[in-house]
Amino acid sequence: MIHMNNVTKVYPNGSTGVENINLHINKGEFVFIVGSSGSGKSTLMKLLLKELDPTEGDIIINKVKTNELNRRQIPYLRRNLGVVFQDFRLLPNKTVYENVAFAMRVIEAPGRIIRRNVPAVLSLVGLGQKGRSYPNQLSGGEQQRTALARAIANNPPILICDEPTGNLDPETAYGIMKLLDDINKRGTTIVMATHARDIVDAMQKRVVTLHKGHIIRDIEKGGYSDEA
Ligand SMILES: Nc1ncnc2c1ncn2[C@@H]1O[C@H](COP(=O)(O)OP(=O)(O)OP(=O)(O)O)[C@@H](O)[C@H]1O
């Protein structure tokens, strides 16, 4: 489903983000990307989202080499990848319902599908009664659940999460993890970068550890710093 083959990213100033990454993720996996600050997690996430292109190597998502897609082909990625960020990134002047509906309009989903899917995903994340609220009327956890609803509204096969619990208190963070686990069990592949050692330890999923831009550990089921 996701293949990174010999991927290196060197930034224009000469610093290396990641080097010679070989990472293969199968359909339905839940994978944590961990590592200390500066180890390359954000670079790896940005490469998957094509916010950056690799200096060397190939990135294949759902059988398509995304490093060879041009600007006009970017909607391909929007359909295949849902994204959740640490800082939610909701549109402040749109309601919860409109934030989710907007993401569906971007990929030109028909109106009747939007009217069907938005209430369904809002109820899935426990926000069935909050559709008319604006982001500033929501708690942090509710804002992140809105962002999660938006990310899965188009039913993408892959969900990319960059520190999705970073701004949340522990209890709220576990609520988000429970939702991600449910979404994963429904078949969505999840890749999540995080610093949250306790969450990684509790979930017992695949853990890929980066250090200075290299993968130094890749364990099938484990905690934040288990031996490979
Ligand atoms: N825009 C950039 N220009 C130059 N170098 C960069 C840039 N972004 C990241 N780097 C470098 O790439 C390396 C990896 O950084 P990256 O942000 O991917 O790490 P990270 O694991 O996400 O760190 P953190 O946990 O602090 O977010 C670091 O050495 C960093 O200085």
UniProtKB/TrEMBL annotation:
<comment type="subunit">
    <text>Homodimer. Forms a membrane-associated complex with FtsX.</text>
</comment>
<keyword id="KW-0547">Nucleotide-binding</keyword>
<dbReference type="GO" id="GO:0051301">
    <property type="term" value="P:cell division"/>
</dbReference>
<comment type="function">
    <text>Part of the ABC transporter FtsEX involved in cellular division.</text>
</comment>
<dbReference type="GO" id="GO:0005524">
    <property type="term" value="F:ATP binding"/>
</dbReference>
<dbReference type="InterPro" id="IPR015854">
    <property type="entry name" value="ABC_transpr_LolD-like"/>
</dbReference>
<protein>
    <recommendedName>
        <fullName>Cell division ATP-binding protein FtsE</fullName>
    </recommendedName>
</protein>
<keyword id="KW-0132">Cell division</keyword>
<keyword id="KW-0472">Membrane</keyword>
<keyword id="KW-1003">Cell membrane</keyword>
<dbReference type="InterPro" id="IPR005286">
    <property type="entry name" value="Cell_div_FtsE"/>
</dbReference>
<keyword id="KW-0067">ATP-binding</keyword>
<dbReference type="GO" id="GO:0005886">
    <property type="term" value="C:plasma membrane"/>
</dbReference>
<dbReference type="InterPro" id="IPR003439">
    <property type="entry name" value="ABC_transporter-like_ATP-bd"/>
</dbReference>
<feature type="domain" description="ABC transporter">
    <location>
        <begin position="2"/>
        <end position="228"/>
    </location>
</feature>
<dbReference type="GO" id="GO:0016887">
    <property type="term" value="F:ATP hydrolysis activity"/>
</dbReference>
<dbReference type="Pfam" id="PF00005">
    <property type="entry name" value="ABC_tran"/>
</dbReference>
<dbReference type="GO" id="GO:0022857">
    <property type="term" value="F:transmembrane transporter activity"/>
</dbReference>
<comment type="similarity">
    <text>Belongs to the ABC transporter superfamily.</text>
</comment>
<dbReference type="InterPro" id="IPR003593">
    <property type="entry name" value="AAA+_ATPase"/>
</dbReference>
<dbReference type="InterPro" id="IPR027417">
    <property type="entry name" value="P-loop_NTPase"/>
</dbReference>
<keyword id="KW-0131">Cell cycle</keyword>
